[in-house]
Write a structure and sequence with these properties.
Distance between the termini: 63 Å
Oligomer: single chain
Number of domains: 2
CATH architecture of the largest domain: 3-Layer(aba) Sandwich
Shape: globular
CATH topology of the largest domain: Rossmann fold
Number of helices: 12
Largest sheet: 6 strands, parallel
CATH class of the largest domain: Alpha Beta
Strand order of the largest sheet: 9-13-14-12-15-16
Radius of gyration: 25 Å
């Protein structure tokens, strides 16, 4: 038997034994289901155990809250043994030690790969690891609708998603309804009790249009075909009609724990590759779901792992259908847990030719962007329909103006909903979370036209071809731009 110095690699569980000597390959000692199914061990000592136990100096070290009381730390030696040309890791299960029991079992893992990720080949695709269930908001009837307060920065102020409004009289609520989020499960009053001029069906359909001439590009065959987009986000409703035919990979990190699909994953996937909602409706989608850590604190080690997994997957893809862009609707900073991990992973992705579109894009590349607002019944294909986003309009008109940020659609978008495979939600107010997958989608269109495109060339061309409009406010005329112009961007790339 060998006491190992490094268990780095990917391992699959084959048994659970009381003593290391009890293990015999092919003769399973444990009759039940194995609690731990697989294990990844990383160079920095981290592991993929659901509770984030680590390895160090030949020990497995773990912390747990025992009996809802105090945090207890325990450690025990792990062993690595080679039998019949196979390598096995004997992983101590520390929970009994934490409960003052001297005896503890070992999970036995067989080594599959020297890399801490499960092996994957082209024949494994499409690979769908789980089908998260639909999300149930559990909402009922409303006695009244909320009032929109333009002075408040509270998001989703007029939230009517999944609510029953059938008994309300909304004839005097036109202004509030112009700021409402709703979905196709919202139950409305009869038309006689709705305000004149408010057309919820029109709003929903206009919100599905990516706008700015993108659908005209689709008619010309510029759809992101043979370009891969990877998204790292919350769990995904796998079979939604917007993107189910584009999904090539769905995996989850161990911190997900079987939860249903929240709203975020379906939304960002549909904005990028949705059949009717998306910017690049024929791009291939590779999606990894994570909760960014097992505890209350975000740990960007999880996100770094996801990026490296995407790089691993990309190596098996044909040269003419590689993943070119990763959409991550999150940002990070030096004080965050796992910052060095995510910083290193993004540098690895950049070196591999991948474009990382994220809230920290200024740190990663020096690029700047912001999200556009749009009145809900205005034409998304008319540049003059756009304005500062709802959450930053006040600061903009108070003097925080700029011309060095690429402006991208954000507000008044309709996306795939987590409540059903053919459901949609209209979000009157968005965030950068909605702009980031939009940028990723435009990059996929650009990569279809110019396979040698780089993030730097893309961004410079987008800034150059962006359109500036005039806003009128308080008697002043303000130049507002550059607004991303996908048609002009693609035309410029065709010239080159």
């Amino acid at each position: 038997m060998t006491t190992a110095t490094s268990p780095v690699g990917y391992w699959r569980c084959v048994d659970d034994v009381e003593k290391v000597e009890d293990f015999v390959p092919g003769q399973k000692q444990w009759d039940g289901d194995l609690f731990l199914k697989e294990l990844g061990c990383f160079e920095n000592g981290r592991t993929t155990t659901y509770n984030n136990w680590i390895w160090k100096n030949g020990l497995i070290i773990g912390k747990e809250i025992i009996n809802n009381d105090k945090e207890v730390t325990a450690s025990a030696q792990y062993y690595i043994k080679t039998i019949n040309d196979s390598t096995y890791l004997f992983f101590p299960w520390l929970i009994p030690l934490m409960m003052s029991n001297d005896k503890f079992p070992y999970f036995v893992f067989k080594k599959i790969s020297d890399q801490p990720y499960s092996p994957i080949s082209l024949s494994d695709l499409p690979k769908i690891d789980r089908h998260p269930s639909v999300y149930d908001f559990g909402r009922a009837k409303l006695d009244s609708i909320p009032t929109f307060n333009p002075q408040s920065r509270e998001p989703f102020q007029v939230d009517l998603i999944n609510y029953d409004l059938s008994e309300l009289d909304l004839r005097g609520s036109f202004e509030n309804l112009l700021y409402a989020n709703f979905d196709n499960k919202t139950v409305w009053p009869p038309d006689i009790r709705m305000p004149k001029g408010f057309n919820r069906n029109l709003i929903m359909e206009l919100g599905k249009d990516p706008g700015l001439g993108v659908r005209n590009l689709h008619l010309k065959g510029i759809t992101g075909r043979n370009v891969g987009i990877a998204i790292i986000d919350q769990p995904l409703l796998i079979d939604h009609q917007e993107y189910k035919d584009r999904l090539r990979l769905y995996e989850e990190t161990e911190d997900i724990s079987g939860i249903p699909s929240p709203m975020h994953g379906p939304a960002v996937a549909s904005i990028s590759v949705g059949k009717t909602v998306g910017v690049a409706p024929e791009a291939d989608l590779y999606f990894i779901a994570t909760s960014f850590g097992t505890g209350q604190d975000t740990d960007f080690f999880f996100l770094a792992r996801c990026i490296r997994r995407i790089l691993q997957v990309n190596k098996i893809l044909p040269n003419d259908s590689k993943i070119r862009v990763i959409s991550i609707s999150r940002g990070w900073g030096p004080k965050d847990m796992g910052y060095q991990d995510i910083k290193a992973a993004t540098e690895e992705a950049k070196a591999a030719g991948m474009f990382i579109v994220c809230s920290s894009i200024e740190e990663v590349y020096g690029f700047k962007f912001h999200g556009l607002g749009r009145p809900p019944m205005s034409d998304p294909n008319t540049f003059e329909s756009y304005e500062p986003g709802l959450w930053w309009v006040e600061s903009y008109y108070s003097g925080e103006q700029f011309n060095d940020r690429l402006l991208v659609p954000m507000d008044s978008r309709t996306t795939a909903s987590p409540t059903g495979n053919s459901d949609y939600t209209f979000y009157r107010e968005g965030g950068w979370s909605w702009s980031i997958p939009y940028i990723a989608g435009v990059y996929a269109l650009a990569a279809q036209i110019d396979p040698k495109i780089t993030p730097e060339k893309f961004w410079a061309t987008a800034m150059k071809t962006g359109k500036t409009i005039e806003l009128k406010h308080d008697g002043k005329v303000i130049n507002f731009g550059p607004i991303i112009n996908p048609v002009a961007l693609i035309d410029e790339l065709k010239k080159k």
